[in-house]
Amino acid sequence: MIHHHPDDGLLLAEAAGTLSSGHSLLVASHVEGCGHCRARLRELEAVGGAMLEQLAPAVLPSQALAETLAAIDAPPPPPAARPKAARSSRPALPDGMAWPRALRGCSATPWRWIGPGMRWSRVTVPFDAAANVFLLRIGAGKELPFHTHSQSELTQVLHGAFHDGRALFGPGDFDEADGDIHHQPKVLAAGECICLASVEGRVLFQGALARMLGSLVGM
Known about the structure:
Layout: H1 8-16, H2 21-31, H3 35-53, H4 64-73, E1 107-108, E2 112-115, E3 118-124, E4 133-138, E5 147-149, E6 152-159, E7 162-163, E8 168-169, E9 174-178, E10 186-187, E11 193-200, E12 203-205, H5 208-217
Antiparallel strand pairs: 1-3, 2-3, 3-4, 4-11, 5-12, 6-9, 6-11, 7-8, 7-10
Helix pairs in contact: 1-3
């Protein structure tokens, strides 16, 4: 059962299309597995559509028709080079675990070591090289260094569970953390945990070694 969800602010931004690519990917990954948030997102999209219908008609500039006709009559531009499709490479997952459909079109590196019992994988988001999205795979009983955030971090639990001193987060749960949150996620002893994360700004770790490892991951 899912206990933690994106708040209405995030869902409204997703409905309006104003979230960054990375954060939108995280919200979409949660929504596809959460009936409650799917229904709430549809409500917010319907409200937005109703608000658009109530807007007063806008008066077009006097030259709008002439410019439109000129654009129609203009010769077509040369075809642009088609972007290379993202590779479908993905790191291995535990038996029974499936990739979120929201990651369709994304590629991810093999698992890379960042510490004892800890691995990570960089996720490439098509058409947005600046998106800072990655997977974390943390072993049973292991914990991340204590940290806070310069801006925001969204986390979607794909497998396993962790506790960060505030709450327990299990499969399907969603977390948003910012500079007001100071925590140290620790994976439960029952098994490893795999999370999808999107970071805007930086994760601010305590300790020189943790900061160095975080910079390697782009956290």
